[in-house]
Amino acid sequence: MRATLVQIDVDPAETPAERRGRVAALVRAQAGADLVVLPELWPVGAFASGEFAAEAEPVEGGPTAEAMSAAARDAGVWLHAGSVVERDPAGALYNTSLLFAPDGELAAVYRKIHRFGFDSGEAVLMSGGDRVVTARLPFGVAGLATCYDLRFPEQFRLLVEGGAELLVLCAGWPARRLAHWQVLVRARAIESQAYVLACGTAGTHAGVEQAGHSVVVDPWGEVLCEAGAGEQVLSCELDVGLVGRTRAQFPVLRDRVLRG
Ligand SMILES: NC(=O)CCC(=O)C(=O)O
């Protein structure tokens, strides 16, 4: 299957509405891909916490969900539309990822479990999700995660136990911790014996330079393709059968002793 990661430049000179239009056109241009992946909070910027409340939107009928559903349908692709600031009916905010099927139907919703910021930003403004999410796609089972989740291997172990073969991570990872990103995406792939598709943002917003370097890692931990720092469309071919073959030939997951 062909995976395409769209590493978006979150430029504060562009409004969220302008960016939605531009990103929808980018997604439409990816017809022929099986799965297209966008980054974390690209409409507003993962570090632009001062804008979160004003840009919050519902999942059902929200402007990003509507635009991405239409773009997925027009392109005929599975679309992991990255995440949005979700406002639920009770008024709580979540960092919520949306997965659309090629007919534009919402196929999965994942609320980021681990909120970043310690005592500020997302960590205080948003509520955390309380469940891991997998979704069965025609070409494999996807496990969803978002940015800071990458530092919590126990979440990825639960995704593997849920059948995940493709670990799809949207992110807004800062340039100053690029080295952590590059190690952790490979670690999650190696320990899970799964593909990791990790899509980050480019540019600088809220004073935080973004790392870019979106990447696809195979179940052996080999980097299949990796972006640079700027806005980029990154595509590569994945052999999802390699997940099962890797797990059968080198059965580390079978040898686990300690289970929660
Ligand atoms: N948006 C995020 O979750 C940022 C995570 C991060 O900067 C880190 O883990 O380091």
Description:
With 260 residues, the chain is of the alpha/beta class. It has one domain: 4-Layer Sandwich (Nitrilase/N-carbamoyl-D-aminoacid amidohydrolase), CATH 3.60.110.10. Helix content is 26%, strand content 28%. It has 7 helices and 14 strands. The protein has helices spanning 16-28, 52-55, 63-75, 122-125, 153-161, 178-192, 241-249, and strands spanning 2-7, 35-37, 78-87, 93-100, 106-111, 133-137, 140-146, 166-170, 195-199, 204-205, 208-209, 215-217, 223-226, 232-237. The strands form 3 sheets. A 6-stranded mixed β-sheet has the order 5-4-3-2-1-14. It is globular, with a radius of gyration of 17 Å. The chain starts with a strand and ends in an 11-residue tail after the last helix. The mean pLDDT is 98. The ligand NC(=O)CCC(=O)C(=O)O binds next to loops.
Number of strands: 14
| Strand line-up of the largest beta sheet | 5-4-3-2-1-14
- What is the CATH fold-level name? Nitrilase/N-carbamoyl-D-aminoacid amidohydrolase
Q: How many structural domains?
A: 1
So what's the overall shape? globular
Top CATH class: Alpha Beta
InterPro entries: C-N_Hydrolase (IPR003010), C-N_Hydrolase_sf (IPR036526), UPF0012_CS (IPR001110)
GO molecular function: hydrolase activity
Domain CN hydrolase: 1-240
Family: Belongs to the carbon-nitrogen hydrolase superfamily. NIT1/NIT2 family.
